[in-house]
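Let's do one together. I've listed all components of the complex below, 230 residues spread over two lines.
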Amino acid sequence: ETGVTQSPTHLIKTRGQQVTLRCSSQSGHNTVSWYQQALGQGPQFIFQYYREEENGRGNFPPRFSGLQFPNYSSELNVNALELDDSALYLCASSLAGQGKNEQFFGPGTRLTVL
Amino acid sequence: AQSVTQPDIHITVSEGASLELRCNYSYGATPYLFWYVQSPGQGLQLLLKYFSGDTLVQGIKGFEAEFKRSQSSFNLRKPSVHWSDAAEYFCAVGPTFTGGGNKLTFGTGTQLKVEL
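Okay, and this is what the predicted structure of the assembly comes out as:
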C-alpha cells in the first residue's frame, strides 16, 4: 500500500510569485484535503477535493485554489504569494463514504516566501 | 464553530515516567476525535481515533486516550514514556456526517520533551 506523497519537499519563492504543490493520495482513497501549518501552530484546513470538485473550504482567500485529477491526485496553487504564506503545506487523503473521516497525511511541502 | 484547546504548550517528562496530554473540544454534537504526532520536519502520523463505543481507545506506540463526554475532553496517556516519544502532539476533531467537506480542526499542539 502506497502512502500519501507530496512534492516538492522544499520550495523558496518571492513575494508576488505563484506556486504549485502536488499530492498523490494513498492507494484506494478518493478524497484529498489540504492544510496549512504555520510555524508553531496546528494545521489549518484550506479545502478538500472529492470527485474532482472542491467540497468544503476553510477561511482562505481565492488566491488559494486547487485541482483534483481522475487518479485522485491533487494540486494546490497559490497566486500572488505573501510573506505569511510561508508554512508547511500538508496533504491528507481519505475515503469518502466510510463516515469515519480518517485522514492520512503526507510529509508536507515546506514553502518559504522571501 | 468547532474548536480544540490543548492547554499545555510544552511538557517535559523523564524517560519511564507516565504522560498525560490534555485536549478539550467544543462541538455541537459528539465529534470524531483524533490524536496525531509530528516529529520535526515531518508530516502527521495518526496515533489513535475515537468514533463511538468504548470511551477508552488504544493506539499505536503504547498510547491510549479516554473520551469524556461530560468534560468535552479526549486526553492522551502513556504509562511509560520512551525518549523516542519526544515530538509534537496534536488533538483534532472532525464531523461525524458522511460525505465530503469533513475537515479536521486541530489544536495548537503540545511539544513533548523527554529527559533521559
